[in-house]
Amino acid sequence: xxxxxxxxxxxxxxxxxxxxxxxxxxxxxxxxxxxxxxxxxxxxxxxxxxxxxxxxxxxxxxxxxxxxxxxxxxxxxxxxxxxxxxxxxxxxxxxxxxxxxxxxxxxxxxxxxxxxxxxxxxxxxxxxxxxxxxxxxxxxxxxxxxxxxxxxxxxxxxxxxxxxxxxxxxxxxxxxxxxxxxxxxxxxxxxxxxxxxxxxxxxxxxxxxx
Length: 210
Ligand code: TMP
Fold this sequence. Notes:
The protein is built from 8 helices and 5 strands. It is globular and about 50 Å long. The chain has a 5-stranded parallel beta sheet with strand order 2-3-1-4-5, sandwiched between helices. α1 (17-30) crosses α8 (189-208), α3 (64-88) runs parallel beside α5 (114-125) and α4 packs across α7. The mean pLDDT is 96. The chain is an alpha/beta fold. Bound molecules: thymidine-5'-phosphate.
């Protein structure tokens, strides 16, 4: 059986990734592909427990390396238990966030040298990189205004400067990585959905004609 494809959605907190997942899933369903929806950090019981540790507001500061290592601990479980087996069974995996988020948040936002992330990614998932990444780009101030009412977790509570740096890193990655498609998420949701569908259709066409 042919391997499944690995599609990720990325962007700073509050950009609206979650509302686009059903849109991608429904579209893939129309082609008859089996799909699996998952997220990071999380996706297995152990990885979800690590997620709780990561997002809780503790009385002590997280060292940047602690945050990075926990992200990759969760990812290791997720890839081993869920992502790799699904792809190998021919399932198309739709995942909210993956290692690109570690480059944006832990390297861009927390100033960790990207070379450490390269090494951890190689150790934890080797060749399992997304085939297509939908990066939703939005101005940091605009997203803050949109989500004024929601309660922030530990990472969301980081200041605007942290999110500006994370966004900058996402945009740099998108500029130099062909699999990452940058989408202007400041537009109305219906327009963003149309573009997401167009990109996924294009991806399906190219990847199934090989
Ligand atoms: P979520 O709210 O999109 O589910 O993600 C949880 C938080 O974890 C979000 O603030 C982004 C952050 N995160 C990182 O900092 N690094 C990572 O590698 C991942 C996957 C998520």
